[in-house]
Design a protein that fits this description.
single chain; globular; Rossmann fold; 4-stranded parallel sheet; alpha/beta; 4 strands
Length: 134
């Protein structure tokens, strides 16, 4: 299985840990990481995923990031739009795109606590879906 990973850099103290956990999980499961791309923020992940899905060398993509609650509902907008666009890309290209973006409404503390878990689940989900023969 050839895995792509798209990682948001925003909240890098969290997403840096997520990236390490995603790579460790992929290695533990025997997946080859064919491509890893970092983008400025979670909102930017669909563009990178689209470029990755066009490649023949990528079978599935895990998307990781952290959107922390601020004073407005901006976090809800970012995560909602990103999730919707990622789902559309998965269906358009017929390849799995697993969502490992923490948020919306996650506090800094919650995001810190969930970092490795969300990254690991995104990789496991992408690989499980990539192996489906239906």
């Amino acid at each position: 299985m050839r895995l792509g990973i798209v990682c948001s850099r925003f909240n890098e103290d969290i997403t840096g840990r997520m990236k390490k956990a995603a790579l460790a999980t992929a290695a533990k499961l025997g997946a080859r990481v064919a491509s890893i791309v970092e983008v400025p923020g979670a909102f930017d992940t669909p563009y990178a995923v689209q470029l990755m899905l066009r490649k023949k060398g990528v079978d599935a993509v895990a998307v990781i990031g952290a959107v922390v609650k601020g004073e407005t509902d901006h976090d809800v907008l970012i995560t909602t739009v990103a999730a919707e666009r990622l789902a559309v890309l998965s269906l358009k290209f017929g390849k799995p795109v697993a969502l490992g973006i923490i948020g919306p409404n996650a506090t800094e503390r919650q995001a810190q606590a969930r970092a490795e878990e969300y990254a690991e689940r995104a990789v496991r989900t992408a690989l499980a879906l990539g192996k489906m023969n239906v």
